[in-house]
């Protein structure tokens, strides 16, 4: 008898959970688009990422409810 296999499906696969990947995942989730983020690093990095935030970046964070 053949083994039953379960598969997870998604609409979008995002490679990398840096500032851009995390923001994209947040917006897609808000729109109801199923997404999975894959990150190769097992730990949180201590390297600075996204160290500058301009007006557009602030608006994106506000859109996700992450910046007041």
From TrEMBL:
UniProt name for this protein: 3-(3-hydroxy-phenyl)propionate/3-hydroxycinnamic acid hydroxylase
Keywords: FAD, Flavoprotein, Oxidoreductase
Gene3D superfamilies xrefs: FAD/NAD(P)-binding domain (3.50.50.60)
GO MF, one example: FAD binding
InterPro entries: FAD-bd, FAD/NAD-bd_sf, PheA/TfdB_FAD_monoxygenase
Domain of life of the organism encoding this protein: Eukaryota
Domain annotation FAD-binding: ranges: 10-66
